[in-house]
Design a protein that fits this description.
Blueprint (H helix, E strand, L loop, with lengths): L4 E7 L4 H13 L3 E10 L19 H25 L5 E10 L3 H9 L4 E4 L9 H12 L3 E4 L4 H5 L3 E6 L3 H10 L8 E7 L14 H9 L3 E7 L6 H12 L4 E5 L5 H7 L2 H7 L5 E4 L1
Parallel strand pairs: 1-2, 1-4, 2-3, 4-5, 6-7, 6-9, 7-8, 9-10
Antiparallel strand pairs: 5-10
């Protein structure tokens, strides 16, 4: 039987009680968990960067003590998780990642490269600097998708109703391709197209019919919906329509069709969907 590898990034403040549901679902679904325990090191004092080529930087004892304490607490958390796992029949690797904030993205990508999907719970949002870096490392520096705001891992792995926000982009196509292993013939799929112009040579005369046909050939029950935003925010439309259809077990969409900088400065659908915390979103880039 295939054993999927799930990346679960957490901070060193995570409790065993918060991890328990993952253990139970992993055992019931024959999963392997890569639990990545992040401990964010304090940034080095600015003056340590300005030493001469042949000299040694002077780092305050207070900074060294703080960094050592954070590293020690993270190691203790790893041990605590490993001890709890001895009582569970779960295939798991627990990895401590002690790094500065600037290195979080790269660190997240290293485990994402050897995982099948990443689950980013809302508990990661307590660190506003680390959360987007973890997501960026998964989406931009690895081939896997990331799920944010998961109501439950069970719903992510076995969704009953899925809403696909389709805009005929490469990112959306990748999201559809990557969510397929989670979808079986009992899953009800709703495809929502917002403001897509018909183009016979590219998307067919009826926008969305091509991707609906592809999914139907996979044995899925598919319903296509075409919406006009009327100039309103697309993200609000996605959330509202998915909720109306009862298809918000998982909202599937491509991430960052525009650059991350443009989304951050001017706003965008990805950023709006990422900012909300009520509905589970399956992002791929």
């Amino acid at each position: 039987m295939v054993k999927k590898t799930i990346l679960i990034p957490v901070y060193d403040t995570i409790s065993i009680a918060d991890l328990k549901p993952y253990f139970e679902i992993a055992r019931d679904n024959n999963l392997h968990l890569n639990i990545q325990v992040f401990a964010i090191a304090p940034s080095p004092p600015i003056f340590t960067y300005g030493y001469s080529p042949y000299g040694m930087p002077t780092i305050p004892n207070e900074w060294q003590k703080a960094a050592q304490e954070i590293a020690r607490e993270a190691e203790n958390k790893v041990t605590e998780i490993e001890d709890a796992l001895t009582k569970e029949s779960v295939s798991t690797d627990v990895i401590r990642t002690f790094c500065e904030l600037s290195a979080v993205s790269e660190a997240a990508s290293e485990l994402a490269l050897v995982s099948d999907i990443a689950i980013l719970s809302n508990s990661l949002r307590i660190n506003e600097g680390a959360f987007p870096r973890i997501l960026s490392g998964v989406l931009y520096e690895s081939p896997i998708a990331a799920v944010v705001n998961p109501d439950s891992l069970q719903k992510v792995l076995h969704p009953k109703k899925v809403f696909i926000a389709w805009d005929a982009s490469v990112q959306a196509a990748k999201a559809v391709q990557q969510v397929l292993p989670l979808i079986d013939e009992n899953c009800e799929i709703h495809i929502g197209c917002f403001d897509i112009a018909a183009n016979e040579g590219v998307r067919g005369e009826d926008p969305g019919t091509d991707i609906a046909a592809k999914l139907s050939r996979h044995g899925c029950a598919v319903t296509l919906h075409q919406y006009s935003s009327g100039g309103r925010d697309i993200a609000d439309g996605i959330k509202r329509k998915a909720a109306e259809l009862g298809a918000d077990d998982l909202i599937v969409m491509g991430a960052y069709g525009h650059s991350k900088l443009r989304e951050r400065v001017f706003g965008g659908t990805t950023q709006s969907m990422l900012d909300q915390t009520e509905q589970a979103i399956f992002f791929a880039h």
